[in-house]
Amino acid sequence: MRSDPSDNGGLFVGRRPGTAPTHFRRLPERGSVARQRIDGYLAGAMLASMIVLSLLCWGPIPVACLWIGSQVNYLSGSVSLGILVAFVALFVLLFGALKLMRSLDEGWILVRRAAGHDQRGGALGRIFAITAAVCAGLFAIWFVLIHGPGGEFSGGASGS
Fold first, then answer.
1. Hey, which end of the chain has fewer CB within 10 Å, N or C?
2. CB of 47 within 8 A of CB of 123?
């Protein structure tokens, strides 16, 4: 194998160690039809829980952290402490939710394979992007049509 940089113009063109394709001695045995059906339902439940967790990241978790920060501000009388607690809570809860979604995604791939599907990649990136787009659209509708610019565009009395 020519992996010495002096042999190939300074480029490592070979495969990295440990990244060769997996070869099984024999093909894994498939489960029964009932077991595959149960695994399919479990995969659906895992996918639904990833969607719910992703939706929580775009609304309820940040609002809960703001509420926690406001309570700390009220109890301590320190705005700085309230902001600090809100940011720490946001960091912990969002990254905890992302870690949980990552674990669910890895498990989802395995359960989908057990259900008889040739699943090679996860769905976390697509779920996160779709929920971000949906929540951004809902926020835009709320901001423009419901809460919006105020009386200036909605026909109400303008502020004097």
1. C
2. yes
> Has residue 75 been placed in a domain?
yes
Domains held by the chain: number = 1
Q: What is the pLDDT of residues 104-119, one digit of tens each?
A: 999 999 888 888 887 8
pLDDT digit string, tens, across residues 33-45: 888 888 889 999 9
CA gap 87, 93 in Å, rounded: 10
Domain that holds residue 58: 33-129
pLDDT digits (tens, 9 = 90+) for 63-85: 999 999 999 999 999 999 999 99
Q: Contact 25/102 with Cβ under 8 angstroms? A: no
Cβ atoms of 119 and 109 closer than 8 Å: yes
Which pLDDT belongs to residue 150? 59
pTM, two decimals, is 0.71
Count of C-beta atoms within a 10 Å radius of residue 115: 20
Query: 36 near 114, Cβ under 8 Å?
Result: yes
Do the beta carbons of residue 90 and residue 65 sit within 8 Å?
A: yes
Of the candidates 145, 58, 14, 97, the residue with the CA atom closest to the CA atom of residue 105: 97
The answer to whether position 37 is within a domain reads: yes
Q: Evaluate whether residue 42 is within a structural domain.
A: yes
